[in-house]
Amino acid sequence: MHVCGSHEQAIAKFGLRSTFPRDLNIIMGPGCPVCITDTPEVDEAVVLASQGVHVATYGDMVRVRGTVKSLGDVQAEGANVHVVYSVAQAVELAREMSEELVFFASGFETTAVATAAIVVKGVPDNFSVLSAHKYIPPVMEIVAEMPETKVEGFLAAGHAATITGWGIFEPFVERHGIPVVVAGFEPLDILSGLVKLLELIRDGRKQVVNMFPRCVTRAGNLVAQEQLWKVFRPVGGRWRGIAHVPNGNLRLRDEWAHVDTRRRFRIDVSTLWDYAPPALVQDCICGDIMAGIASPTQCKLFGRDCLPETPVGACMVSSEGTCKIWYQYGGHPDLRGVLNPPAGAESPARLRRGFGGSAEASRGESERRRKGEPEPSALGSSRARSEGALGSAMAWGPAALNGVAAS
Amino acid sequence: VKITIEERIGLKHGAGGRAMRSLIQQLLADGFPADPEDGIGLSAMDDGAALRLGDQWLVITTDSHVIQPIFFPGGDIGRLSVSGTVNDLAMMGATEVLGLTSAIIIEEGFPRISLERIQRSILDTCLEAGTTVVTGDTKVMGNGELDGVVLNTTGIALTKRVIPDNGLRPGDRILVTGTLGDHGLAIMASRHGLELDGDLRSDVAPLNQLIRVALEADGDNGVVAMKDPTRGGLASALHEMAEKSGVGIVLEELEVPVSPVVRAAGELLGIDPLHIANEGKAVLGVRPESVERVIEALHRHPLGREAAIVGTCIPDHRGSVILDTGFGKRLLSEPEGEPLPRIC
Predict the structure, then answer these.
(1) Which of A308, A331, A339 lies nearest to residue B331, judging by beta carbons?
(2) Exposure pattern of A18-53 as b/e (b: 16+ CB <10 Å)?
(3) Which of B252, B314, B333 sits opposite A338 (nearest CB)?
(4) Preferred mutation among B300, B330, B344 to probe A, highest tally of A CBs within 10 A
(5) Which of A72, A155, A349, B136 could form a disulfide with B102 if both were Cys (CB 3.0 to 4.6 A apart)?
(6) Contact at 8 Å (CB) between A222 and A193?
(7) Complex ipTM value
(8) Which among B308, B309, B325 has the least Cβ separation from residue A15?
(9) Best mutation target, A335, A336, A360, A401, to test chain B (most B CBs within 10 A)
(10) What is the pLDDT of residues B126-185, one digit of tens each?
């Protein structure tokens, strides 16, 4: 299981699943911050906006529905909802107005660090933070303990580990006996991370391995961590569709009460509770998908009643949501046999000349053959084009990939 | 006419994807039962119609043009209207254009000088395509009843051989005549006021001369299917060709020519260059034995210098487009609705 929307994006976009061995199942866990923002948290922002407070937030959050409405819905009714790319932009916006501006802050520790930094630096008096920030390490414990999940290894997100350091996963591995590999986001980063993880599983080695050493250290970014914990404290709270996650929510510490929206406003979300949830939502299995128990194609709404234009569940809203990504990149069909010769019949280079390569590439190859030069290796060449990159890499033995990972 | 259960027309019904095709199907093709006895009519949903005229085919097509902004980097609505119509004819194999009509609907208050600029652009583009406007019409509508100016252009041409868009067989190769995504990203950048370094320009151009070269490259037998990847981009064009021909198409992502500035702008905006419109490019289906001759002929023409072989037709996965990313394969989805930059 990986726990990051960016990993799922890259896996889907580059068609990596079609290269995996058939008995390897890579699933996305609760890795989309928009998706796991709980309904009452969205409700808080919706109530504030509909009472006339300016609310600034990231684009995807606008379309996520709370109990009844999304921020987009109340915006259409005239509320002041602003889409921003960064917390800094929200602060700029607040400086330009005299009214109260609430920054509805979603995102994992990577994003929370940015919020913390700007709070420490100082914000205008009319600016406050409605924190829906989440902290990933505790939810991995929850998923590992779910009786339905059969997660044999975790691929941890490189950018989050840049902040927290990879050492943070060591107690987890000790407690649960599940190996963790920290991986980056380029296709080769992911593939080499997976190979390492599979080796750990195969050999029964329960440890943390950092396969993203060009960014991640054992201790992480200490300055960022200091600012993060100076502003936020971890508290328990619900993640949409998952569970109550002890220490999974990041809330502002008491010394920052003046910046904390929840302490500056009395937010009464009970006015929204008289409404029954729309009928479709009851069929949504986002929770099971994020827990890694089900896949989007097992949902009867996926691709029919639930589309990117008209999302039912949060997983279809965010560009990091599993459902949106599967819809965008054509789901998860079995394409392993497409244009592949029978095993061992043809080398990838010959396959390429026969079907795929351009005239130029074919010329290049015949020239090489004339000169008696060796073929560039599929994974080593700058335009890597291996059929079944991971499958073949594993067949060649780990040495073939180690060079790539180190380079 | 039954439209859809939504009962309202949305922007996606004009965006070039499945929604638009089903609207056209229901509105036009299902409404007029009789196709011409000998020829290609509405039910083929091709780029134009072909009617038998002695031993030749009369090819006819019509196209309306609305675009914001009216003047954009690389072209304007006048060049777009001539190119769009000439290209639709060329995609049927009719590269000798007999003449065009030009109907212009103008909003009250539209600057005369802009109209003259559009007219000059129509004239210049006609010269490039070796044709002219033979009849026309103008209407003026009240302020606010129309957004600036709307152009409609009809074109007719004769040809000995009609090229449909459903002629692909397993083994056929897919060619594109140049870089993809230029028009769509240039329009998007100027519409949303995005200031990007680099020369982001529309590729709008009449393609009939280039297509003639491709058709003549191999004794008039090599090219078996054509489509211009306008709205919906290469993804939509390939989906339509695969569906109509009953084949699967494997597209090699690394072979698809995309200019560096388009690639960068696409990454920035979260938009796939394969999903957005081109106005000066064609997708050709070519028999494998002719592919070398056709690509060489394309490379010799100024509009085809960056032509590339980008895909192959396969017998299974009918109607699907499979993208080989160089690492692995996935389905290439068809865009539904107008692609929006990541700014709203």
Answers:
(1) A331
(2) bbbeeebebbbbbbbbbbbbbbbbbbbbbbbbbeeb
(3) B314
(4) B330
(5) B136
(6) no
(7) 0.70
(8) B325
(9) A335
(10) 999 999 999 999 999 999 998 899 999 999 999 999 998 899 999 999 999 999 999 999
- Tell me which amino acid residue A143 is: V
A58, A99, A105, B213 from A78: Cα distances, Å: 19, 16, 22, 57
The reply to whether the predicted model has a pTM over 0.90 is: no
Which residues in chain B are contacts of A18 at CB distance < 8 A? 328-330
pLDDT digits (tens, 9 = 90+) for B214-252: 999 987 789 999 999 998 899 999 999 999 999 999 999
What is the number of alpha carbons within 13 Å of residue B334 lying toward its C-beta?
A: 23
> Is B333 within 8 Å of A330 when comparing Cβ atoms?
yes
